[in-house]
Amino acid sequence: MAREVQVRCRCGEVIGLVSNASPQKVNRVVCYCDDCQAFAHQLGRADLLNAQGGSDIVQVAPASLTFIKGRNRIAGLRLSPKGLFRWHTTCCNTPVGNTLGPAIPFVGLTAQTFEGGTRTVDAVFGAPLGAILGKYAVGPAPAGSTGINLTLLLRAITKVLGWRLRGRAWPHPFFHLKTREPIYPLKVLPQEQREALRPLCGPKPALRAQA
Ligand SMILES: [Zn+2]
Ligand SMILES: [Zn+2]
Known about the structure:
The chain is of the alpha+beta class. The chain contains 4 helices and 11 strands; from the N terminus they run βββαββββββαβαβα. The chain has a 4-stranded mixed β-sheet with strand order 9-4-3-10, with helices on one face. It has a 4-stranded mixed β-sheet with strand order 8-7-6-11, with helices on one face. Strands 1-2-5 form a 3-stranded antiparallel β-sheet, with no helix packed on it. Strand 7 (85-89) and strand 8 form a beta hairpin. It is globular. The N and C termini lie far apart (38 Å). One zinc ion binds next to helix 1.
């Protein structure tokens, strides 16, 4: 049965609600890509990565996520001019949603930001369906995480198309309906700063993270 669960930043200034919370309404995937790793390091939140640099991500429909507190503490970062919009809080640098533009509607939420953490997420959404982009994992790639996972890919495409068709793209928690412009302040990481993050990330980090 679908229910409502809270997401909150580490310090509690920013709170959101996810409606329609059930395994059928989301994709939960562990992403090992170097961009997700770099973003966590940029935020100083390597604590959110698993031992091999993976991010446990729950993708929900934009209309399922509403922020009910602390909207003035949300900002966005792109790791490159065309990169994902990676939204985070400015109070405690907690990621609160990865998105593309509103034309490809989804919001990727870090599992640990759900109230009750991964235990809640396991109970409400079920275990991750799989892992992707394991070639960037720190150390050996986790089983089944490399190459193209057609099942996961098709499921993601089906979900996003379904959200689009069924009107779940709007209201979008990060974009204005009329202008399609971001609601929150947005920065693009300068290229030299992006490059400086690479030694922290897989597959062979040259530097150790300062957690
Ligand atoms: Zn906070
Ligand atoms: Zn990723």
